Amino acid sequence: MHRPGLKNIRFWSQLTATIGTNAYLTGLKTGSIYTSTLKHICVPTLNCYSCPAALFSCPIGAMQVTVAGAGGLDLTALHTIGARLSAIATSLPLLVIGFLALVGGIVGRAACGWVCPFGWFQELLHKIPSPKFAGPKILRYLKYLILVVFVFLLPAFWLDEFDGGEPTFCKFICPAGTLEGGLPLAWLQPGLRSQLGWLFTWKAFCLAALLVMAVFFRRPFCRWVCPLGAFYGPFNRVSLARIEFDKVNCIECGACSKKCPVSLDVPREVDNAECLRCLECSNVCPKNLIKVARR
Amino acid sequence: MNSSPQNERKLPIPTLIVLLLALILVFIGYNNGEHRSYFQKAILVCTQCIGLG
Question: 20 to 30 A from B42, CA-CA: which of A5, A101, A182, B53?
Answer without folding.
Answer: A101
